[in-house]
Amino acid sequence: MVVSIGFEGSANKLGIGIVRDGIVLANPRRTFITPPGEGFKPVDTANHHQLNIVLLLKEALDEAKIDPHEIDVVCYTKGPGLGSPLVSVAVFARTVSQLWGKPIIGVNHCIGHIEMARLITGAQNPIVLYVSGGNTQIIAYSQKRYRIFGETVDIAVGNCLDRFARLLKLSNHPSPGHNIEQLAKNGKIYVPLPYVVKGMDMSFSGVLTYIEDFATTLQEYTVEDLCFSLQETVFAMLVETTERAMAHCGAQEVLICGGVGCNIRLQEMMAEMCKERGAKVFATDERFCIDNGAMIAHAGAEMFNVGVLTSWEDTFCTQRYRTDEVEVKWRNDV
Amino acid sequence: MDNASKDSLNCSPTSAELHIPFPSADLATVAYNSLRVDKEPKRSTTTKVLSLEANILKVSFTSGDTRQLRTAVNSFLDLLILVSKAIDEFAPLDFKI
């Protein structure tokens, strides 16, 4: 019976999760929300995490009704993500690891998302669409690695949505993407936008530049029309590339994870494509789609259970950390 | 005279040294271990070296740019304060490594 604690802070969400044998005992989170029109800068985000992490840890321990001596392993996000926020959380994790005398494990953020989504949904061997503000990858597991089949060649789809929201000065509460989703529901006119799929990869900076022109002049379209059109376009790109991966692998399951995975319209479009292929879509709710500590705790526990530990010198953070760099020793399927 | 290239703060390497005492050598060691792992960001000309002397954590910074030195020292102190808060809230009584 392994009790693990996970610390996550690679972007503007600070999360601490406590997991015992695949059961989430606590998963509190604080989000650093900037004024409309502003994105979150690394230094300010790092300050936010430093200010909130002590109270958040107390909250997690209280909610889980766990005493530190019951914890078996301390896990933290090694990367990818923003430098100073990652380091702030890692320094704290290193400290409690020493104070409590527990081993420490550095977890890949993307793998945290994948493993949590697999745990919650029960998907066996899906094509994974991992979409967030910082990442856009299509992943398939093969022989101890999460292989990146396709990805964005420039910015993440969530970054495209967030920056468009910034231009429109939409509120960043609870997240810019959430507010684009609400506006899109009232869109009536579809505006043709650049659609850029290159084989298994996608590009979003072009469509962002194009729609930024619209935002400043608005022409005859409403904000709702633009939000609707942007979603339909970028989500169709994601569905196309996911379907291509499914065809290559003969997969019958799709698992959507990452913050953009909360979007119901994306889930609907994916479900439509899957229905045509007799396949199934799996997605989680915002507790686990959005960055959280429990996903780090759970992925860390999987690593701990197969004897993977992180040496002290290796507890550094890295802004670039490819999903396929990690040897997935805890999976035995081919 | 070319005013654009004058910067009187950058003639030679600047340095700073901090000495931070802790209640015990064990707690100083915790701080030392937590803070020595991360390297300075790649674009920075600042280097830092941490060392321990009984219960005192020593940090020495060297930089080719005084403004970068300020940033490095400030970031370090923010993290040091974070470590001390963690110690205050979560260290077991009579903590020993």
TrEMBL record, chain A:
<dbReference type="InterPro" id="IPR043129">
    <property type="entry name" value="ATPase_NBD"/>
</dbReference>
<dbReference type="InterPro" id="IPR017861">
    <property type="entry name" value="KAE1/TsaD"/>
</dbReference>
<keyword id="KW-0479">Metal-binding</keyword>
<feature type="binding site">
    <location>
        <position position="109"/>
    </location>
    <ligand>
        <name>a divalent metal cation</name>
    </ligand>
</feature>
<feature type="binding site">
    <location>
        <begin position="130"/>
        <end position="134"/>
    </location>
    <ligand>
        <name>substrate</name>
    </ligand>
</feature>
<feature type="binding site">
    <location>
        <position position="291"/>
    </location>
    <ligand>
        <name>a divalent metal cation</name>
    </ligand>
</feature>
<feature type="binding site">
    <location>
        <position position="162"/>
    </location>
    <ligand>
        <name>substrate</name>
    </ligand>
</feature>
<keyword id="KW-0012">Acyltransferase</keyword>
<feature type="binding site">
    <location>
        <position position="113"/>
    </location>
    <ligand>
        <name>a divalent metal cation</name>
    </ligand>
</feature>
<dbReference type="Pfam" id="PF00814">
    <property type="entry name" value="TsaD"/>
</dbReference>
<dbReference type="InterPro" id="IPR034680">
    <property type="entry name" value="Kae1_archaea_euk"/>
</dbReference>
<dbReference type="InterPro" id="IPR017860">
    <property type="entry name" value="Peptidase_M22_CS"/>
</dbReference>
<comment type="similarity">
    <text>Belongs to the KAE1 / TsaD family.</text>
</comment>
<feature type="binding site">
    <location>
        <position position="130"/>
    </location>
    <ligand>
        <name>a divalent metal cation</name>
    </ligand>
</feature>
<dbReference type="GO" id="GO:0046872">
    <property type="term" value="F:metal ion binding"/>
</dbReference>
<dbReference type="GO" id="GO:0000408">
    <property type="term" value="C:EKC/KEOPS complex"/>
</dbReference>
<dbReference type="InterPro" id="IPR000905">
    <property type="entry name" value="Gcp-like_dom"/>
</dbReference>
<dbReference type="GO" id="GO:0005634">
    <property type="term" value="C:nucleus"/>
</dbReference>
<feature type="binding site">
    <location>
        <position position="181"/>
    </location>
    <ligand>
        <name>substrate</name>
    </ligand>
</feature>
<dbReference type="GO" id="GO:0005737">
    <property type="term" value="C:cytoplasm"/>
</dbReference>
<protein>
    <recommendedName>
        <fullName>N(6)-L-threonylcarbamoyladenine synthase</fullName>
        <ecNumber>2.3.1.234</ecNumber>
    </recommendedName>
</protein>
<feature type="binding site">
    <location>
        <position position="263"/>
    </location>
    <ligand>
        <name>substrate</name>
    </ligand>
</feature>
UniProtKB/TrEMBL annotation, chain B:
<comment type="similarity">
    <text>Belongs to the CTAG/PCC1 family.</text>
</comment>
<protein>
    <recommendedName>
        <fullName>L antigen family member 3</fullName>
    </recommendedName>
</protein>
<dbReference type="GO" id="GO:0005634">
    <property type="term" value="C:nucleus"/>
</dbReference>
<dbReference type="Pfam" id="PF09341">
    <property type="entry name" value="Pcc1"/>
</dbReference>
<comment type="function">
    <text>Component of the EKC/KEOPS complex that is required for the formation of a threonylcarbamoyl group on adenosine at position 37 (t(6)A37) in tRNAs that read codons beginning with adenine. The complex is probably involved in the transfer of the threonylcarbamoyl moiety of threonylcarbamoyl-AMP (TC-AMP) to the N6 group of A37. LAGE3 functions as a dimerization module for the complex.</text>
</comment>
<dbReference type="GO" id="GO:0070525">
    <property type="term" value="P:tRNA threonylcarbamoyladenosine metabolic process"/>
</dbReference>
<dbReference type="InterPro" id="IPR015419">
    <property type="entry name" value="CTAG/Pcc1"/>
</dbReference>
<keyword id="KW-0819">tRNA processing</keyword>
<dbReference type="GO" id="GO:0008033">
    <property type="term" value="P:tRNA processing"/>
</dbReference>
<dbReference type="GO" id="GO:0000408">
    <property type="term" value="C:EKC/KEOPS complex"/>
</dbReference>
<dbReference type="GO" id="GO:0005737">
    <property type="term" value="C:cytoplasm"/>
</dbReference>
<keyword id="KW-0963">Cytoplasm</keyword>
<keyword id="KW-0539">Nucleus</keyword>
